[in-house]
Protein 1
Amino acid sequence: MKHLISIGDLDRASAIELLDTSSRMVATQERQMRKLPTLVGTTVVNLFMEDSTRTRISFEAAAKRLSADVINFSAKGSSISKGESLKDTALTLRAMGADAVVVRAPSSGAAHKLAHSGWIDVPIINAGDGTHQHPTQALLDTFTLRRHLGGEQKQGECSGSVDGSGLDGLHVVVVGDIMHSRVARSNVQLMTLLGAHVTLVAPPSLVPVGADVWPCDVLYDLDEAIALQPDAVMMLRVQRERMLGGGYFPSAAEYTRRLQLTTERAHRLPEHAIVMHPGPMNRGFEIAGGVADGRRSVIVEQVAAGVSVRMAVLFHLLASNAREES
Amino acid sequence: MTADRPGTTAPGSEKTVLSGDDISRSLVRIAHEIIETGHGADDLVLLGIPHRGVPLASRIARTIAESEGTGRDPESLAGSLDITLYRDDLRRSPARLPHPTHIPAGGIDGKIVVLVDDVLYSGRTVRAALDALSAIGRPAVVRLAVLVDRGHRELPIRADHVGKNLPTSRSERVGVQLAETDGLDAVVISGAAAGGADAEATEVQR
Amino acid sequence: MTPTAAGSTADTTPDALLIRGARPYGEEAADVLVQDGLIAAVGHDLEAPDGAEVIDAEGCVLLPGLVDLHTHLREPGGEEAETVETGTRAAARGGFTAVHAMANTTPVADTAGVVEQVLQRGEDAAWCAVVPIGAVTVGLGGERLAELDAMARSRARVRVFSDDGKCVSDPVLMRRALEYVKTFDGVIAQHAQDPRLTEGAQMHEGRVSAELGLTGWPSVAEESIIARDVLLAEHVGSRLHVCHLSTAGSVEIIRWAKQRGVDVTAEVTPHHLLLTDDEARGYDAVYKVNPPLRTRADVEAVRAGLADGTIDIVATDHAPHPHDAKDREWDTAAFGMTGLETALGIVQHTMVDTGALTWRDVARVLSETPARIARDTDQGRPLEAGEVANLLVWDPRPSAEVDPEAHASRGRNSPVAGRSLPGANRLTLLGGRPTVRDTQLVAR
């Protein structure tokens, strides 16, 4: 594995290895001294062409805990047009001696382009490209799921080792704007790769044409999905400006009625089921505040897992020969 | 132990230098040395360095627990300490994936920690283990036990307990096999088929 | 001698040229004598007059010079991408003796002045005939008609009008344009794309776009405009030409319209005969084109439509771009592909070598019918004595890997780079004068 652009870059074994390494990283973060010397002397560039404070600081924390130097490069607001900026920026980063580039960009395929354009020859980590992929988000979601529900356990307890296991037999429901969601695309691929069954729930106007071949079910009704008694429900952020302006649904009120994870709906989930959200949340829109803060919610844990998962990704790309051996 | 190998192994050839019985005797002797040096087993923690240091630490811990008067449970005595993330040569020589670290319930603060590994070579693994240890806690004393010391140190590190001193050439390869990981117990030395990098790999690429 | 494509070998035009053994329309071999810019004789065992050059063309196919109804020469305004000079060199290398230059230049070809300038540049370059296409609306703005009559009556004698690159989406404006060009037997060449259904569109809407997260360009956005336009053309009794049709549904609509007797013609590009939306998977913007590459089923449908005559012609939509316009993220890259120098190779590969078209059909779809649609007088003519000698001698036997660096076009954005295509341009005659010999340009 030279780059991490898409979940499609992973097979089941390498995905599980990444999750297992993430567990090792979690353990190091519980020590008195959390900083590891692993990547000392390397420079990781966070190239963010689009605002995302959460993802950026997560990658920054991951790189710093591994002792890498971090350069934050924000190209947003630059007067140069987007394409020129990406290419010119890549050439600049190459000249500066970056050892890896974490890239977030508004264009689908930007990370792939950066990895395969010949502009720069270092590992590229996709931190979200347009509406295409967000692989580290899917890894941290999957890590959190596996920690709670993986292996033999189904009681929502974090006991025992889940090393080596996938998500076999789990049923995950993902709710929201599937069409514009890179998180949904990455999660459908990764969760099904690891043996979970995924059901997407969205208004039909937010299901992309062509999704009929995805390895998952699509429902239009959240109550119907909850009746299936899933093990986990992931609520996606509704981007109000995009959705209402685009006419994808009539009103916020109608969306909330049909698709909000309310306290009442959460109550109908099985006892062990967990509730996830990639953040940032619109409390009271796609998810009720009580559910976000409730006992099923693992939303804060997802954020913590994000740092460990990104440490694992950096380790695999910059310091490990794991994939070359196989 | 004295050196009994004046020559070196021919390329491609292989020679067993420790049998299963030899290994068992060495570990029992190391266990007794540890008890004697530490004046008992009360504050003792054995941390095996993955991969093969971990079963070695367990075996030594069992012997210590079985010794009269120690009153220790081998589970509380032995653990593992992964050093992958603390290596200083990752960029030059990429690592395999990290193994779990397991510290016995009592922790290591104020304890006598004995690091256990199969082969002592350059000393870089031990240096990394000391760094890893300091991230976890502050032992009173840290000692080192190894099954084989093959020489060629690159750092000022020496073992406190050695199963066998084995003078080698850098081009040779020392292979420790254990029942838990390889199906049988043996220490094998072989001539360098694939050159010096292989010999380095026995210790560095764990 | 290692002549390069961009350069050209000097040559003096012989007084007479005897092409021996080529097969007109791929049929029975014959000799063709060219003299004084005309076909002097077609027959067997013709005698070479004194001073005549004899060209052994045994095994080659003789076709009327190819006519492209859809070419972007980029001049004026886009000279970094192409000029009339480089674009017509590319055309000659492709076997074309005439190209129709699209109006979306800067300034837009929406006045007699601009179309006459383009005509003049073509005459100066003299690698092939350059026939300007006029814009339908002022500045391609889609709001009011350009002075179509003035362009028709200019020295450029414009007969084809198109806002290509943009769709004349306003139905009233489209109706008026269709009606208006009847005065001078003109035709509106429509770029069929509903603008609202394709806002931000990047590629064909379907399984690949869903996976790649690129905004979809649905087939219906093309088909709905074509359906509307054939009904409008029928209603007002005008001539309609549909540019670069790309979907199976569009073929069905054209087939239906022709059965009703609507005066409609349709074109397909070489790339839509060959490539599918799967090419987008590598996010290489060289495959970004408008209309987008469609599915395998669409490719099969346009091939069938071309074979059965529903689709009248192949036109290149040759759209060169500077490197930087393509070497970037997909959604910021330019639409378009080059096509002039690979068109006949692709048509041979997809249609002739598969048995779907004969060489006589190729003469029809790449020369005679496009000339007829555009009302060109000296192009797409029969291979008969007395006709202007606009000819192509094509050797269908060799095949070669496409190397855009060797192209005469300034554009390097060929979607078939690295692929092997059959055929070679042995000789192209423009009014009896060789413009290409053995794939190399021949300077005047």
Protein 2
Amino acid sequence: MQISFTLNGRPTTVDAEPATLVAELLRERLNLTGTHIGCDTSQCGACVVHLNGLPVKSCTLLAPALDGATLLTIEGLQGVPGSNQMHPMQEAFREHHGLQCGFCTPGMLMTAVALATEKPDLTEADVRHGLEGNICRCTGYQNIVVSVMAGAVAMNAAKGE
Amino acid sequence: MGNVIGIGASPKRKEDQRFLTGRGNYVSDIKRPGMTAGVFVRSPHGHAMLRGVDKSAALASPGVIAVLTGEDAAADKLGSLPCGWGISDAKGVPMKEPPFPMLAQGKVRFVGDMVAFVIAETPAQASAAAELLTVDYEVLPSVVGVLEAVRPGAPQLFDDVPNNICCDWELGDKAAVETAFRKAAHVAKLSLVNNRLIGNPMEPRAAIAEYEPGTDRFTLWTTSQFPHVVRLLMGALVLNIPQHKLRVVAPDVGGGFGVKQFHYGEEAVITWAAKRVMRPIKWVASRSEGYVSDRHGRDHVTEAELALDETGKFLAFRVNTLANMGGYLSTFGPNIPTNLYGPLLGGVYTTPAIYCNVKVVFTNTVPVDAYRGAGRPEATFVLERIVDVAAAEMGIDRVEIRRRNMIPKEAYPYQTPVLVQYDSGDPMGCLDGALVAADVKNFGIRKAESARRGKFRGLGYSTYVEACGLAPSRFAGRLGARGGLYESATVRVHPTGQVTVMIGTHNHGQGHETTFAQIVSEKLGVAFDNVDIVFGDTDRVQFGMGTYGSRSLVVGGAALSKATDKVVAKGKKIAAHLLEAAEVDIQFEAGKFSVAGTDRAKTFEEIAGAAYVPHDYPLEVLEPGLEEQAYYDPVNFTYPGGCHIAEVEVDPETGTVTLVNYTAVDDVGTVINPMIVEGQLHGGIVQGVGQALYENAVYDEGSGQLLSGSLMDYCMPRADHMPMMKIATHSTLCTHTPMGVKGCGEVGTIGSPAAIINAVVDALSHLGVTHVDMPATPNRIWRLLQNASLPVAAE
């Protein structure tokens, strides 16, 4: 079936089997391999993308759900749309060593941006609770939590400018 | 151009740009022209005779290209998966080493054992065809626990391995230990289980293989921590492919923790199959498939006894362990519960006599091998638990009993009774630092506050040491290693002065691209931005043993340091010629070659240029070029260690244990990049927290089914399980590595489980609880409390 949606700011139309998972569609058909698949039970969160501005696990979403929707993946996350500038949350992860092997990182970033957008004055407890659906095996989460809090502050500052 | 950024600085990581923007290059991201999809058919039974495989329906399924089984592998005369270590018993009798066929032949020995490989045009077609394969199994009873496996009448995995015992291994002076026990004023005893773990790197294993008939070359992309070792073992011992016709690439790898440091059957099958079907093939494991095929870790049952004199001094330590090997010997398998376990039983103490017996046992479970820490967390757990048991029984404070037995700083180098000689350390300094950092003196106030809320608060210590930097080759050879464990690095200086390093270690999260660039920047005086680190490709890197056992900086970094020294030595020769001075008069400092006592000098860039464009150059005595290679073999292990203090709160209503404070003061030697070291400690500690509180791989005894077979059944630590940890270093320098480094990848995982369980036991000690097995889940604690004397209210 034909599915038309906005992908990282660009109108996109694909022809896909209705049973195709969004994570699969992104990785195999659209060559956007930044969205990762780390499990088969929707536990790990490596595949989180934004559907109409909200974080979703793309491994449990079927492609037809994209029709008419707006999708943002890690490849489209930017400081200023259309620029090569990193998003403040990406900068914060780099600054505070919020990543090691990088595999969970795209999903972590997409969840983190959503958390900070939803609640600008995030507490440590909010961040830890908000990351329940994203597993990292490398960092012990400490620097991810620090990064998300710093990224949220930077996002607020950028909004104020 | 940027600046020199050297040892001790924390520049932001070079690798982060690609990972933060979704531009990493993991195996599953790679596509090859004409690529097909492969799916493994795995045994659903723990133990069964394999009577036959009927391929016909699968072969007729749409899109199917081939179906391969163990019979096909046997017809092609493929080898068995090799074990890299050969251990022996006390009489020198070698371990039993049954063949490990890459696809099962005649029998399957664990749920997940590979039976067939189905190749089709798409993953969906391959999966559909795999469902149509008819496998004729004659199911046998399974045995999954070590105690059950050695009992008379237990199911036998191999005809020629009586009682399922692979090796009855021992270490230490048994007679001296017995004598000491006879003189003891007190003997503390402890029975414990070290729970079975699944490593769970976030990237599942994957591989792509391709054969080019025009050049007769194979390429394997694989999620490996040691691509050169895969090339050597697979090419030379399994598939009989000459090394120059086989390229192994391990690109970005999403975490390893040991799980990816073995040569897996999947790698051999897919490489062999690529030539048979003359098409590239890709296989990506699902998480559930990883649970029944990634090598597991730990899984010990242990009886320990500590003999003490009347003052609490340790006289002797005796440990008897049954260690689970699973269904076959994996690459490092038998080395882990023996050589990486027994020699660590001395810990940071002066115990004069130690004896350790380990029975290495086959069971119908996934093969067990190294998982972060590998043997050393098990040793630390036994020792640090029994020290607490002895302290409680003798009425001695837990910190005091440790102090009475600790090796003083001035006693290093210290020879233990179990082979290893510690070169440097200061366990008392780490302990003192941790006591302050953890605010132990006010623990009573916090405990009382918890009690007012109806919670039991406990404090636990772990003062530990580990051996890492694998490994001094001669020493390892005496222990049974079938190859040396050195490392190599090439420093290629380009004509314009930038540097590319080719190194045999593998970066899969540890930040090598940054740390190693700092070493080069410091040693050669070149800008940090002008150094790139290349790894993970046998066509680009000379050779290497890869990354495991906290060896990359200790062994690889030393090779790199040595190679930079060679570059400087060659640069001095070139400078002497250009500056018309004697070589001995040339000094190299801060990126400049100068003639001592003069202002005549050449920059590093000028020397690099002259090396490659040698129009004015004594070619008869000096070769052009500025590229040096070095191999480094350590003379000893390194011995990082430290003190970890955990503080927990137990809710008696639910049995839930909450980790409320965690403090670690570790001695990792010289710190190259403090930010990265701290990150390694965070991650290591939380993997230890996982073992202590959450993670457990559980098998059903009769059927051999893995009951914890997905992320929904196997509990991984989440962000809200952790408090903010306090991390500090208290370093003494390693005396035998070039930069004084000791390694930091595993310390967190080794030190932490004992600290946490000691804290849980402390919290419950007023109820008569003396030991809690891992993981200390709410269920386990709640049951303990139901059986305890007074679970009603906190004191």
Protein 3
Amino acid sequence: MRYWVRNVFHLGVKELASLARDVVMAVLIVYVFTVAVYSEATAMKTDVSNAGVAVVDADHSALSSRIKDALQPPYFRAPREIDRSELDALLDKGLYTFVLDIPPRFEADLLANRGPSIQINVDATAVAQAAVGTAYIQQIIARETANFLHQHGASQAVPIEPVIRALFNQNLEAIRFSASMGIINNVTILAVILAGAAVMRERERGTIEHLLVMPVLPNEILAAKIWANGLIVLLAAGLSLHLVVQFALQVPIVGSVEFFLAGAAVYLFAVTSLGILLATIANSMPQFALLAIPVFIVMFLLSGSFTPFESMPVLLQDIMYASPSTHFVRFAQSVLYRGAGIDLVWKDLAAMAALGAAFVAVALSRFRTMLARQS
Amino acid sequence: MTADEGPAIRVDAIHHRYGKTNALDGVSLSIARGMTAAFIGPDGVGKSTLLGLIAGVKRIQSGTVTALGGNMALRSHRDMVSPRIAYMPQGLGRNLYPTLSVVENIDFFGRLYGQRESERRRRIARLLAATGLDPFPDRPAGKLSGGMKQKLGLCCALIHDPDLLILDEPTTGVDPLSRRQFWDLIGRIRLERPGLTVLVATAYMEEAERFDNIVAMDEGRVIAAGDTAQILAQTKASTLEEAYIALQRPERRGDRTQLAIPELQPSDGPPAIAADNLTMRFGDFTAVDHVSFRIQRGEIFGFLGSNGCGKTTTMKMLTGLLPASEGRAELLGKPVDARDITTRMRIGYMSQSFSLYEEISVRANLELHGRLFRTPAGELEARVASALARFDLDAVANALPTELPLGIRQRLQLAAACLHQPEILILDEPTSGVDPAARDRFWRLLVEMSRRDGVTIFISTHFMNEAERCDRVSLMHAGRVLSIGSPEELRLARGADNLENAFVAYLEEASAQSVAPKDLPASSAGVKPTDASGLSGSETRSLSDLPYRSAAAPLRRIWAFARREAVELLRDRVRLAFALLGPLLLLATFGYGISFDIENLRYAVIDRDQSLESRLFLEQFSHSRYFVEQSPLRDEFEIDNRLRSGELRFAVDIPPGFGRDLLQDRQPQVSFWLDGGSTFPAETARAYIQGAVLTYAAERHLQLQGQDPQMLPVNVEPRFRYNQDFRSVFAITPGSIMLLLVVFPAMLTALAVVREKEMGSITNVYASPATVSEYLIGKQLPYVATGFISFVSLVVMAAAVLGVVPKGSVLALSIAALGYVFAATAFGLLVSAFVSTQVAAIFATAILTAMTAAHYSGFLFPASTLEGPARLMGLSFPALWFQTVSLGVFAKGLEANAFIPEIAVLLGFGILFLLLARLSVRKQGV
């Protein structure tokens, strides 16, 4: 046992030393955890914000102006007035996501109780914004017409007053979500590639064979790769969370950063093991890269850090539970956004640890056969 | 040409540094045309650097090199003479492509030099016949034995009739028979092409003796140069080996006394190593065939045999690295067991290829070894220090192994293998590429360990003078042991005058029984240049009609690179399958899986009113497909807790007196608490809640007034354009294709180039007449094709499986895809120009392509909503532009002329990336 710890420690130190030599790699790691996190956080628009709106106003009444004025930042850009003939071309170019079409005599028809219609042309290829944005516009129109009618003596409208408040993030600022999710995605990609490629490189150079004639066990080699590469990613993620998210982006974090990092350590055990497992399946570095791409793209698009997990088909949700990233995203959202403690997230932690252990077990069982295939 | 009159090579005052190390320190020499020169000297004195500079594959730092009548510092001259120079770098098969067959390798070089098909075929046939490779034209180069690899390398070098042949340790690690055949071959070539100048670096002194000139080097300088006979006379030596040692600085000479090996004392007890019918099969190929031997403690046992005869495999079975298919092996009286750690502590192993860490220093490597072998902390420093001293590694203790020449790396491996004072040493060609003086010192160490400490030594070697020092040797061929005995016994058994001849006789006999190589053409002087061995097509040539100077030559070279890359890709079935199936799998997953249609928002209610009115209001939620009700909340504290746990997306809090207030038109408040952590579902929930309240109001109005609600006096008619059913798959599919078509092609291309850098075959480009642009474009073409095939398969799958059929111009989409794939692969080339390791290439390509495509290119969020740097990042990457086309054609049904600007921009990106890559890659190493 004492030797196990020592071997794992020394091999891990070697791992860190060799990584320190790859300057390009170091620059890339710094880049993804600073510049990339920053610009992703400020760019990702899962909410309706800044949506492009145009209005075809054939009425030019007080009411139509009122509706136009109500479409305001931060949800919408100030609407541009366009001619109906331009409508199709502008939507084709993707310049506007919503185009309101207010017919002639709109206000007059309303006052005459003839139930006029407003058309909203929605570019439905903008899936993230189209549905919510349409709902917003519908409400804005309803509210404005109600107020308008109220001024013109019609009865007070809504029988109840909904008071909608958000916990944890009062103004529903998307940046609070996207900033830390950006870090999580980087953690996944980096951990899979670093650990997997480290094993692959040792295979291609023959150094792993050399280790196996020394008093070193395969599980010591794996353990060293896991801790060394995991530690680098953990450090990078921790610094990024403090310096980029909290300091540069001024995003408040509801929960405990330390607890999050502890969970990240468990996650890193799982993903570095996954990377190593992939490296035992592939036979060369290019093969490993091609195998890793689908793995990390799926993990980063389907784990709930991009699109809501519950809106995926149930079958796919079930499959994705076999990915540690799903549990980690849920863990991270609970801890970072909602301040959850271990009582609420222990299941996800346990799942990550169990998946990691399974990956390690499979990787180990493939270890010797993999070397035999090599020669 | 008058320039052709002078010496073939003139080198003046060349200095060359690698960082702080002085590799060459003022070297000047001159070699006449048609001469042969051997460069000898210890490892790391600058022989390889000098040859590389002469060949033009390394950049000259200071001084001048004149080769074949011109200055090699001038690009114009290099371009002109490179077709007349052939360069074979150090290392077995370093310039070959392992998955390509024998013929394909030579054919590639022929194409590079612009030879036509018929000419290539004729030359290849002649070269193969002359080198005895003709029985195996289709064998992949990677599966050839070391000697055959070197012969093939020579064929590749000779395909274009060079006037200057530069060979850097061509016979290192090659068995005596193959070595003999190799030099016979060179001899015949020289007979046919008297003008051929041959420069060779070698560690074999008996080889160097055959050369006209000797250049002895030490510490980056030439210490003696001239006629071989002259040098022998100068040093009063009878053999070059003696002369060589005499030329050394005294401290390098080592012990000049004859190495005396004391008698081996027979020991009892179990043998140190015992093999009993050891057999190893790979598929239907038997690498080791019932090998048996017993080696007693303290014995030095030599393992000899032709390349690829199974020596290494046997050694790997003894160490437990490979489980034997049959038979058993014992070490120190215990069966070999891969799990047995204690036995491993007693064994030292050195593999044939360098297997220590290149990226940590020599000292760090030794320290790591010591630690892993459980050297007590107090002793470690002393042991490492003594190993550094013993193996003469002090000077390079802090250098990285990458920077060191082969010989010194071998010494480091030996030092590592001996560091923990093992009882058995298993050494696989430990002295290949090590200079004679160092080898001599090393053998003194071995003898000392064997006789004084009783260490058993199992060693394979190609040096006969080393074999002669073994207690016993075993001769192996084609997986079988031919004979075991003391060197003297073996020599007598064949009646040969020395062990080498005995060995060659054994091998020749054995090969005759197996695959008889075709009789080599006689190497007599009477051979006519064009027939018989026919190694040259020495027709007189004028510069203008040389194939590599014609106008079509660049195209032919591009084609040569493209063709080779394509064949390599086709051979690597797994890579090809991943490259084509990976995107399809991902497209299916995304099309099926990514969805922004939020339904089933989980919520719970705390109803403090419990009235009929409150229940009616809540039905608005429980009956909606957007919401799923969870068990009710008991108190306010639970609201917070259950939102925090992520169980609920929102909570509804109905105040007491809700029903009463409602009936009295007092507009009661209802509180909704959202989980603001995940903003997108929260936004959606807010919109849906407001919608539900409005619907409730309208229905109530209808109930109370019995008429159409005045509440909603305006009909709002949303028209979802391009995607009437509002299904995510229609929006996700075009974007997914955009994402996949940049990630995969860029990754494939980047790795293809960086891999050549790591493996060393990029030297072929440095040495050939091809330009960097030709190389890059040639590399790129197969991946453009792969990318386009991938595009076609993605579109077919989108239409057939996902039901997303392109509505607009398929032609425009295809042209744009071609431009996009071109840009993506060019981006891969650009990445490869900046990174030196495959790991960095994978990571850089992954984050730069996947992140940019996913975040800034309008994949999930319309690109028009981006602002500032994010917008700029999107605009300066091809993905955004292709996304416009992809979305336009798939979803909006637009026609071709709408996309002319986008297609132009995509092509522009491709050209720009290619230019940048071209500017960042230099054709010459340092």
